Amino acid sequence: MNSRQRRGVILLILSVLCALAAFAGVLVVIGDVNSKVGAEVVAYRAKADIAPYSPLTAGQFEEVKIPKRWLSDTAVTDLGALKDKIALTALKQGSLLQSDMFVDKPQLQPGEQEIAIMIDASTGVAGKITPGAKVNILGTFKGKKQTDPDVSVVMVANARVINVGRLTPLDKDSDKKGPAEAVPITFALNTKDTQRVAYAESFAEHVRLSLVAPGTDSAVNPGDRMYTLEGDK
């Protein structure tokens, strides 16, 4: 082997050693990053916007992997936690699912049944009525005769709300007065109260809700159930 060949072999060996050193350096950097970031775990984010108080399903979320050390204690890592749950607030597309974003879906009690009615959002909801809240359902009626006074009636006291739907446009004749949009609200009521609500929705001029303070569950006094302007004089 002449001197030129020896130099070629030495350069080749040096190149291999430099490559091995660079590769070892990359492995060291990767190991250092992994030691700082840690193992990845599965979390879930919303595929699209989700309205508040709407039922949650696994199909509304997609899997995403995040380093465990960066994941909050409230992050949901198992979609089984969504069973019988509703969104507590509006969830934006891409939002990471957290356990404080949803609550249990209100359930019917023995002897109760569901009934849903449309309520004018501007006068009956205003964003303050949520599932689990209790409200008084009031109906205002025209007098049967021209000489009869108009009357406001508490149709149902302490009605339990189990669902609040989305704002919905109403189909109506252009010459009729009334709200252009309303919110479907579902109540859990006994049979008699269900009939009262159905009657009010069918025959009342207006149906409104008044929010009952939490912890208040007393019946309305008989003298307060009906109101007329003449009776207030």
Key terms:
Type Iii Antifreeze Protein Isoform Hplc 12; seven-stranded antiparallel β-sheet; alpha+beta; 2 domains
Describe how the helices and strands are arranged:
Blueprint: H1 3-37, E1 40-46, E2 61-67, E3 85-87, E4 102-104, E5 113-120, H2 121-124, E6 134-141, E7 151-164, E8 168-169, E9 181-189, H3 191-203, E10 206-211, E11 226-227
Antiparallel strand pairs: 1-2, 3-4, 5-9, 6-7, 6-10, 7-9, 7-11, 8-9
Plain-language structure description:
- The structure is a single chain.
- This protein is of the alpha+beta class.
- It has two domains: 40-104, Type Iii Antifreeze Protein Isoform Hplc 12; 113-232, no CATH class.
- 22% of the residues lie in helices and 30% in strands.
- It contains three helices and eleven strands; from the N terminus they run αβββββαββββαββ.
- It has helices at 3-37, 121-124, 191-203, and strands at residues 40-46, 61-67, 85-87, 102-104, 113-120, 134-141, 151-164, 168-169, 181-189, 206-211, 226-227.
- Strands 5, 6, 7, 8, 9, 10 and 11 form a seven-stranded antiparallel beta sheet that branches. The chain has a two-stranded antiparallel sheet with strand order 1-2. A two-stranded antiparallel ribbon has the order 3-4.
- The mean pLDDT is 80.
